Amino acid sequence: MRGEVIFEIKFKSNGNFDLHGWIDVGTYTISGNQITLLDINCGTLEGVYTYSINENILNFVLISDSCSGRPTIIPGDWERVLIANLTPFNTDTVSDELLKANCLWLCVED
User: Which of 14, 67, 89, 106 has the smallest C-beta neighbourhood within 10 Å, fewest atoms?
Assistant: First the structure.
């Protein structure tokens, strides 16, 4: 449950991600349509999610995550934000390059 806070997430090509303004808060790996997250707030507890992209919406579905905070933020829809000087990507194919593209995603409230 994200509440009234709007979160932002940015996946980088070096395997790091930024969350809500925190730089390099964690790392990610991708296998098929599954992403595994590790971050400084959860120590060695991995979060495993499936993901899909439909046009400008990135959706995460929880598979398993023992961390108390991450599963309240990550699952659900995230909207791509177009910002000048960021590398565009092709949304026709869900692949490693889509998440590694230099773009910013904001959570979408229900």
Answer: 14
